[in-house]
């Protein structure tokens, strides 16, 4: 009985101590706009991980035939990442999944969220973190702030189907 209680207490404590990572933007209610400057944000303060590869996938293989490493290496301490117009030039679809994965093993997914990419020129939800970043897809002040942000992380496209190891070998990724 006492043993059980101790076990339960240990389980409780370790569950509480276990740091959590979740993606705060985008989300099922906070979309990205195709070709615009979009915001990726996560709970950096409670994350046990130091860096991520941002992986995009879609349940519709006509949109994306496999996992796409959108951003190779984003440090956790950045807390958010400004996805530039080029990185955001995605096909419009409501069935995207965005994941934060182990930079050495893309199938080791730490956190993921469903989200939608709306047509270029769409407005953001008013409560979205991305609404303050830019209202439209035009390259204005928002993109100049994004370029300083992207400098901190290595933003590279890795061809669909290429393994992280292969990408590393080819020098596409700065690990
Ligand atoms: C990559 O991660 C997956 C899921 O965590 C795991 O099953 C697999 O063994 C890992 N692969 C390597 C090479 O570490």
UniProtKB/TrEMBL annotation:
<feature type="domain" description="Yeast cell wall synthesis Kre9/Knh1-like N-terminal">
    <location>
        <begin position="26"/>
        <end position="117"/>
    </location>
</feature>
<feature type="signal peptide">
    <location>
        <begin position="1"/>
        <end position="19"/>
    </location>
</feature>
<dbReference type="Pfam" id="PF10342">
    <property type="entry name" value="Kre9_KNH"/>
</dbReference>
<keyword id="KW-0732">Signal</keyword>
<dbReference type="InterPro" id="IPR018466">
    <property type="entry name" value="Kre9/Knh1-like_N"/>
</dbReference>
<feature type="region of interest" description="Disordered">
    <location>
        <begin position="125"/>
        <end position="151"/>
    </location>
</feature>
<protein>
    <recommendedName>
        <fullName>Yeast cell wall synthesis Kre9/Knh1-like N-terminal domain-containing protein</fullName>
    </recommendedName>
</protein>
<feature type="compositionally biased region" description="Low complexity">
    <location>
        <begin position="126"/>
        <end position="151"/>
    </location>
</feature>
